[in-house]
From TrEMBL:
It comes from the Eukaryota. CDD domains: BRCT_BRC1_like_rpt2, BRCT_BRC1_like_rpt3, BRCT_BRC1_like_rpt4, BRCT_BRC1_like_rpt5. Residues 223-260 are annotated as: Disordered. Residues 31-129, 129-220, 262-352, 364-447, 642-706, 793-847 form the BRCT domain. This is BRCT domain-containing protein. GO terms for biological process: DNA double-strand break attachment to nuclear envelope; double-strand break repair. PROSITE patterns: BRCT. InterPro entries: BRCT_dom (IPR001357), BRCT_dom_sf (IPR036420), CellCycle_DNARepair_Reg (IPR053036).
């Protein structure tokens, strides 16, 4: 924040309030209240927001009748009982959690500027410094995109803390467009606006990862992601968030803090306790004690007297007492970081600033994890994080590795991992497993997404610990060892801003009832209350009922954006790939405005979302359609028919796992048809679709059961029997079986991989890589037939007998070397086994 910015603000202020001096106004015309007359602000200083910046901002707030308190951390904590807003450039200050509990909005300084520019208090959620709202500094508009994609982009940006406008203004930071020829792009260039023009793919990738990534590869007019693919790996460009937090125990690396020196802020009037489990030498302990004392703090051996507790492990009576008393609990790396920067930071902000668990993270001991494409501090940080989970971090990748963590998928390690069936994930899987203290599913697309031309090393270290998870796992309120602990709200700042609660249990999920959370907090005194429509609602009474009403109102305000985001991120293709058309079912419609309208628009009112007609029938059928010729080459007819079907309660889906019904004109050997059979849908004729559209009503699907005796006889199975077996198999027909595919297999490897995995098997590409062995698959072997444990299959064709003879021979050698029986079979064996829902004998299909 600079004085030049505030000079700009003053010029805007004059345009709103005029140039006359209010002191000289006639007494018959009382002074008009300023924009912030009913607000009391606390300004939190930091390295990025100096005392000079804070004073400049305070003068602007006072000019508009706002009351201002500038913090004096760390000497004293803020008195939040009379504060309506906290202004900070970071969420990393001692009272942040107390503000959240008291529903006091924490906003960035830009909130003040934008509120003055519009002469209206802005929505604080769009200006939160909380990193979970990773789009908070994005103000976007869309240019010349289909309405379905525009709606999806708006929902995602708003849910993640950004702003969205349907017109171009001077406040726009990003224009989402497909070409530079669009109206908004041309206008932005003519007006020389400082905006980034990006492809919608950028928003899609950010939402998939839950992180804001670099815009450079997506910038028009020459976006890198649209260029032909190259084998050149993308390089990391950003400074990571792990500086000073790469090793939870720096004392083991012969690292010591700088020579004793006087710090100005971080230890002033603080009491520090160094735990005995740190295992540091008397010499090092003496250095640390001298630094603390020279900086205005003191040391103690009693945990109840300490403000800061430094230990190595998440265990022991002292750790639990300190944690439940709301003290700052960190490790030696955290203490070193405080000494290095002389700035307070929460030990929960960085994963390796908090004590580790001796026994590791459940599910991780025994895993062998290798890293690829991370370098420098990011690599060291991930290696130490893997060790902290209890898993083994290997320098090289071998077949006995269980996981490969990579920043992108262009490397020899990634190619080998694919051939060997090793799980390939990004670092978010590791970080979020550690933060949530539960191994995360690798089937989550967030952990297997690798944007083109982006090195995910840029976003290493953005994950923070969850205080509710820590309490639940390491010092729960019903812990028998904690009977003598002073009763205080767990994991909250130990000051007068929080209210002690007996045996309190934290809300662990945003889905929990907001009224439960209100029982743990005390609302501010009623001296300051702001009521500006739906925004800036601050609790104004100590009565629990009022607190519940406010909490409920805030959750209600957030719900539409969150629901829209959750809905759109699950949509096949995300935001841009095959996005929704104007006629699609369940779409959300936004108002359009001209780019030539006035600029001083209220951003948070820009998107007017509404649901489809309330008369639509509730969904009663999820229908997968295959082989239906009527819509081929007629996209408009398809859109219109699907909308009519949706109005009747029939949702057409491509997700076989959700299918309740499967429609086809006859038995077809398509991926959708064969995959869907594994989920035991009712198979009906596409005549059902025609009949429902003609009658304009939902007809009984039982009257349209598909009958195809000719193909049933030809393929040797019946649809009815196949469905019954599918129900019994429960997607585990191929459990424990390893099935390899030749690279040139007809239909493509991805087709067979989808079918095999829908039936519980493992499918891998066979390139004949030397040294390959069949994974043991012990975890999948229980309860499967004997053949699954001794046989391994290669899907090929008769044409490959001479052309790919060497690959067949290598496959046999690999299988026999793994003590398995090699079975080289025609692809028909796999298709017909999946269709009949029984593993067929390979006698008629074996090629060698």
């Amino acid at each position: 924040m600079t004085n030049a910015i505030f000079d700009t603000c003053r010029s805007l202020i004059r345009s709103f309030v005029g140039t006359s001096d209010p002191v000289e106004m006639d007494e018959e015309h009382p002074q008009r209240q300023g924009l912030f007359a009913q607000c009391t602000f606390a300004i939190v200083r930091s390295a990025a927001f100096t005392a000079k910046d804070a004073e400049s901002l305070a003068s602007e707030l006072r000019l508009h009748d706002g009351e201002v308190i500038i913090d004096d951390y760390p000497e004293n904590n803020l008195d939040l009982t009379a504060i309506t807003h906290v202004i900070a450039t970071t969420y990393d200050f001692p009272d942040y959690n107390a503000c959240c509990d008291l529903l006091i909005p924490v906003v960035k300084p830009s909130w003040v500027l934008h509120s003055l520019a519009r002469n209206k208090l802005g929505n604080p959620r769009q200006y939160s410094p909380d990193p979970r709202y990773f789009m908070s500094d994005v103000v976007a508009c869309v240019s010349d995109l289909p309405e379905g994609d525009s709606d999806a982009i708006a929902g995602g940006i708003l849910a993640m803390g950004g702003l969205f406008s349907t017109k171009l203004t001077s406040q726009i930071t990003h224009i989402i467009a497909l070409t530079m020829d669009s109206e908004s792009c041309v206008s932005a260039q003519k007006r020389h606006l400082d905006v980034k023009i990006v492809l919608p793919h950028w928003v899609d990738d950010c939402l998939k990862l839950g992180r804001k990534i670099d815009e450079q590869p997506y910038l028009l007019p020459d976006p890198e992601i649209l260029k032909p693919p190259t084998n050149k790996a993308p390089l990391a460009k950003r400074k990571t968030q792990v500086e000073g937090a790469v090793d939870p125990d720096p004392s083991q690396q012969d690292r010591e803090p700088a020579a004793p020196r006087k710090l100005e802020r971080v230890f002033k009037k603080k009491t520090v306790m160094l735990s005995n489990d740190l295992g540091i030498s008397p010499y090092l302990r003496g250095i640390l004690e001298e630094i603390v004392k020279n900086s205005g703090g003191k040391l103690t051996d009693t945990v109840t007297k300490a403000n800061m507790f430094v230990c190595k492990y998440r265990e022991g009576q002292e750790f639990k007492v300190a944690s439940r008393s709301g003290k700052d609990v960190g490790n030696l790396a955290w203490l070193y970081y405080l000494i290095q920067t002389d700035e307070w930071t929460s030990p929960l902000r960085r994963l390796l600033h908090y004590p580790i668990a001796k026994d590791g993270l459940p599910g991780f001991p025994g895993l062998k994890i290798s890293l690829s494409n991370y370098s420098g501090e990011a690599r060291t940080y991930l290696e130490n994080l893997i060790n902290a989970t209890g898993a083994e971090c290997t320098k090289t990748l071998k077949q006995d590795n269980t996981h490969l963590i990579t920043a992108h998928n262009l490397s020899e390690k990634c190619a080998a991992a694919k051939d060997w069936g090793i799980h390939i994930v990004n670092h978010l899987w590791l970080e979020e497993s550690y933060a949530q203290w539960k191994i995360q599913s690798i089937t989550d697309n967030r952990y297997t997404h690798f944007p083109k031309r982006t090195n995910l090393g840029d976003v290493v270290g953005h994950t923070q610990l969850d205080r509710n998870v820590l309490e639940t796992c390491f010092f729960p309120s019903d812990d028998v060892e904690m009977t003598d602990v002073p009763e205080q709200a767990p994991m909250q700042q130990a000051n007068e801003n929080t209210v002690p609660t007996k045996n309190s249990k934290r809300v662990l999920s945003g889905k929990a009832d907001a009224t439960e959370q209100s029982n743990h907090v005390r609302t501010p005194a009623p001296s300051k209350f702001v009521a500006t429509g739906k925004e800036n609602i601050t609790p104004s009474t100590t009565h629990s009922r009022k607190s519940k009403e406010v909490a409920s109102a805030r959750l209600h305000e957030l719900t539409p954006d969150i629901l829209l985001y959750e809905k759109e991120k699950k949509r096949v293709g995300g935001v841009v790939y095959g996005g929704r058309r104007k006629t699609d079912e369940d779409r959300v419609v936004s108002r359009k405005r001209s780019v030539d309208e006035a600029e001083d628009v209220d951003m948070e009112d820009e998107v007017d979302v509404k649901r489809t007609k309330r008369g639509n029938a509730a969904p009663s059928m999820h229908l997968v359609i295959s082989g239906y010729k009527k819509w081929t080459g007629h996209p408009k007819l398809e859109d219109n028919d699907k909308k009519r079907l949706r109005n009747l309660g029939i949702i057409c889906t491509t997700d076989s796992s959700r299918a309740t019904h499967l429609a086809a004109p006859h038995i077809v050997r398509t991926m959708k048809f064969v995959t869907a059979l594994a989920y035991a849908p009712l198979v009906i004729s596409t005549d059902f679709i025609d009949a429902c559209l003609e009658a304009n009503e939902f007809l009984d699907p039982e009257e349209f059961i598909l009958e195809d005796k000719e193909n049933e006889k030809k393929l040797g199975f019946s649809l009815q029997s196949s469905r019954e077996r599918a129900k019994s198999n429960d997607n585990q027909l191929l459990r424990g079986r390893w099935i390899y595919c030749m690279e040139n297999i007809r239909g493509g490897f991805e087709t067979f991989k989808t079918i095999v995995e829908a039936n519980g098997g493992r499918c891998m590409l066979w390139r004949g890589r030397k040294g390959t062995t069949v994974p043991s698959g012990r975890a999948d072997s229980e309860g499967v037939d004997a053949d699954a444990n001794i046989e391994v299959y290669l899907l090929s064709s008769e044409e490959d007998r001479t052309q790919q003879k060497s690959l067949w021979n290598r496959f046999k050698e690999m299988a026999e070397g793994s003590r398995k029986a090699p079975r080289i079979v025609a692809a028909d064996w796999m298709l017909e086994s999946a269709m009949s829902q029984q593993v067929l004998s390979i006698k008629e299909y074996e090629l060698a």
